[in-house]
Fold this sequence. Notes:
Layout: H1 14-19, E1 34-40, E2 46-52, H2 54-57, E3 62-67, E4 101-102, E5 108-114, H3 117-126, E6 128-133, H4 140-143, E7 152-153, E8 158-159, H5 168-174, E9 177-185, E10 197-204, E11 207-212, H6 217-228, E12 235-238, H7 254-266, E13 270-273, H8 276-282, E14 289-297, E15 303-314, H9 326-330, E16 337-345, H10 359-377, H11 381-387, H12 405-416, E17 429-430, E18 433-445, E19 453-460, E20 465-468, H13 478-490, E21 497-500, H14 517-542, E22 556-559, E23 562-565, E24 572-574, H15 575-581, E25 586-593, E26 606-618, E27 624-634, H16 641-660, E28 666-667, E29 672-673, E30 691-696, H17 720-732, E31 738-739, H18 743-746
Parallel strand pairs: 1-13, 9-31, 11-12, 15-16, 20-21, 27-30
Antiparallel strand pairs: 1-5, 2-4, 2-6, 3-5, 7-8, 9-14, 10-11, 10-13, 14-15, 17-18, 18-26, 19-20, 19-25, 22-23, 23-24, 26-27, 28-29
Helix pairs in contact: 10-17, 13-14, 16-17
Amino acid sequence: xSPVLGAALxxxxxxxxxxxxxxxxxxxNLPNLGHAVLVGARVPSGRIIGIDCxxxxxxxxxxxxxxxxxxxxxxxxxxxxPSLAGLVAHGQSFFPMQDDVxxxxxxxxxxxxxxxxxxxxxxxxxxxxxxxxxxxxTLLDQVRxxxxxxxxxxxxxxxxxxxxxxxxxxxxxxxxxxxxxxxxFAANHQNPxxxxxxxxxWDDVDRLTVYDSTQxxxxxxxxxAELLGLPPTQVRVVSHFVGGSFGSKxxxxxxxxxxxxxxxxxGRPVRLTLSRDxxxxxxxxxxxxxxxxxxxxxxxxxxVAFTHDKISLTSHFDxxxxxxxxxxxISYASPNYAGGYRLARGNIITPTFTRGxxxxxxxxALESAMDELAYATGxxxxxxxxxxxxxxxxxTGKPWSSKGLKECYQRGAELFGWAERDPTPGVRWEGxxxxxxxxxxxxxxxxxxxxxxRARARIYLDGSAVVEAGISExxxxxxxxxxxxxxxGLGLPVDRVRFLGGTTDLPNVASAVGSAGSGxxxxxxxxxxxxxxxxxVGQAVADQHSPLHGADPAGVVVRDGRMCLRDRPDVGETxxxxxxxxxxxxxxTVGTWQPVLPPMTDHAMHTFGAQFAEVAVDADLGLxxxxxxxxxxxxxxxxxxxxxxxxxxxxxxxxxxxxxxEATRMDPQTGRWANANLADYLVPVNADVPDVVVETIEVPDxxxxxxxxxxxxxxxxxxxxxxIANAVHHATGRRIRHLxxxxxxxx
Length: 747
């Protein structure tokens, strides 16, 4: 067991962040910087019939007001493709300000550039736009009867129907018990602390530097280059620190390229920062959706049939739905299964990744239904899940690369005290509070990029090392974990290794999305570092002046930068001694990892966990307080116990937020989100946070990637909302089948 990997190392970027030395995309002090502000459409559907920019143009400090009448046309129309591919990653296949058509409220219709942000914002209010409004639809119920089954969703990567197992309709008809349940979900927005910000500088007529708050510098580079008609080598993207994302910065939205077009028009650097209101209208969201689950089971609780169908609202130009059915389909061993998606088009921006995309909603529906089945059969919820445990992937019959779910159930139940639970709903009171407990399974797929992933490692004459890969740090602790991976691979102390990321000048790695960031980056980092280590060991054993001359390289280990014989640690030398003696200033290698995608492997790859919750419900006021959360997960290799714990706890608090607070409400009269601010869009504060216990069970995995890393970014949210909803039912006897659960539901 490596003393470095898994250690609770303090964040290497911590000092920079707390002292203000960490620079974000909106903090660059550039000479002659202009500030751009977007003007959004005030109607959800129609045409622009007039734009009066005269007052805005003559306002103090304004240097340009751009509309579709004078903005240059983009070189190519964007095509929706998820950023995990490591290629272009447009958020939607529509680029605004190319004509007079309005598809959704908030769609950019003008850009104002001024010498200060205040002047640009004021001038934006002076732009007068006239519309010929046309009928619109912005709620699922308005277009439900026009829904259709898409051929593919999720940027074309996922079929519109899941593979069918057996004969689910016959299985449901013949089952001893059957449940037919519908679950509803409000739209959600990501709401990172830092709004999306882009600062652009044209270094030459055809060379661009983009400072962007993005989850994937390479995705930004390729996407902007495509729209501007430039070779990617002429677009440089810098993104060292990002103030949160939660999916809103995973894909590349139009404002990034609009900033570049505006900067070229005014001939000066330009910064464009979306307002909080614009974040609700410009960067996608979790779509409004409804899911129907039908379960058929025997009296012993064993599933015989299972169907899962989803309908959701998408834009007029993209077949987008988050993949809510995939993890649910393989969580339990039902011999008969069918599932599919339906979409309805509305006047909204294309939805996108949002915290635990797909699984956070799909597993809520399934795990709520499983709790209902547990009560219908009189079987303990954990026992019911164990009876339906999928020993292999139910879809393919492939063995799991690793699982550990049974161990998660067992350990979670111990930590939570599940055995002491009275299963009868509504019997436990503390004063006016009704107390309830619930649990749920968490599942999330192990994703991998399509393209090769690369990293570079270099050791210097003094024995220190620099390791590089083009990732950004958006709060996950990636820089720290990769420092540990590099130190482990090179056999160096962590204080002798510096990990650099944040620019497309460095080797390419895909955007850190879908819990794939750790695996996608650690794999080439590990390969680069172990290759460099082996290269130097090989040089030492071939060097007649080395104490290791003639030794078997397989018998040489490296500890604290010193190469030595495994069975004679006193025989060896340091990297620095080897390089200094041979007058070599530095040595470097590039590691390349070509992921093997799940369909091409002999194993199924998923991350699993178990969630437990205790709630107190005020019987008079309908208030819900989550008092305890316990989560136990099996995420493969844990790179840093401290940052992984933080990620998992954060995910569980997202789940609390999803269960009880978060909902973006659409005003159908205006086609705009009615609560597009942090005063009315509810998220937890410290007073809402309960006692949270997080544990991980490390089950070795030799399939997913070189280090067996599955990732922890999303799995924490999955299952939490279901555990809370199940606990609310246990407390009150009321079954709430939509999120969020509100006071009105419980009064």
